[in-house]
């Protein structure tokens, strides 16, 4: 198994190798403060298991478009069982989350290239218009999830009859 050390946040951000990496190897990040008296270094332990788990979620790629009567959201969910997809909807916001299971058929060391995402994914979309949550539909065909969200007709009028008690 390949045990290469993951570069620190600052190394990924700046492309620099971290000369103080061994001093702070407990999983946190190194912060550099520059001011009077030169550089000062501090160890910041901000990563907990919950934060790392949420970082592992990949963001689901989506297309969002409209028809005259609906907002439509499409997402590629190839390799995901429809029962593993969770869709939460309000009138203004849509959240799609789920998990793509990896059936490890190949040892990690035998990969030359590995670009497919396995594991959890999540995406929250602020909708461009209010939608009717009761009439929303979600279908999956050939690995494409399609969510049709009917727009609320804000110009629709109805007459109310006054009843006496």
From the structure above, extract its key features:
165 residues, mainly beta, Immunoglobulin-like, 2 domains, 4-stranded mixed beta sheet, 8% helix, elongated
Helix and strand topology:
Elements: H1 9-14, E1 29-35, E2 38-44, H2 49-56, E3 58-59, E4 62-66, E5 70-76, E6 85-89, E7 93-100, E8 119-126, E9 137-141, E10 144-150
Parallel strand pairs: 3-8
Antiparallel strand pairs: 1-2, 4-5, 5-10, 6-7, 7-8, 9-10
Describe the structure.
The protein folds into two domains: 39 residues, no CATH class; 94 residues, Immunoglobulin-like (Sandwich). It is 8% helix and 37% strand. The strands form three sheets. It has a four-stranded mixed beta sheet, with no helix packed on it. It comes from Candidatus Kaiserbacteria bacterium GWA2_50_9.
What is the structural class? Answer: mainly beta
Shape: elongated
- Strand elements, count: 10
Helix and strand succession?
HEEHEEEEEEEE
Family: Belongs to the small heat shock protein (HSP20) family.
InterPro entries: A-crystallin/Hsp20_dom, HSP20-like_chaperone, Small_HSP
Pfam family, one: HSP20
Protein name: SHSP domain-containing protein
Could you write a compact summary of the structure shown?
This protein is mainly beta.
């Amino acid at each position: 198994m390949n045990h290469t050390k993951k570069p620190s946040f600052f190394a990924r951000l700046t492309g620099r190798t971290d000369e103080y990496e061994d001093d702070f190897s407990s999983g946190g990040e190194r912060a550099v403060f520059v001011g009077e008296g030169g550089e000062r270094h501090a160890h910041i332990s901000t990563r907990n298991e919950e934060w790392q788990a949420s970082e592992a979620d990949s963001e689901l790629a989506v297309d969002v478009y409209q028809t005259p009567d609906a907002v439509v959201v499409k997402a590629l969910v190839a390799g995901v069982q429809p029962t593993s997809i969770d869709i939460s909807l309000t009138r203004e916001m849509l959240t799609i989350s789920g998990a793509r299971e990896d059936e490890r058929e190949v040892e990690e060391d035998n990969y030359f290239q590995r670009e497919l995402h396995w594991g959890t994914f999540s995406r929250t979309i602020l909708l461009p218009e209010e939608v009717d949550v009761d009439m929303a539909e979600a279908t999956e065909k050939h690995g494409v999830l399609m969510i049709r969200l009917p727009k609320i007709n804000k110009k629709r009028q109805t007459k109310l009859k006054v009843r006496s008690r």
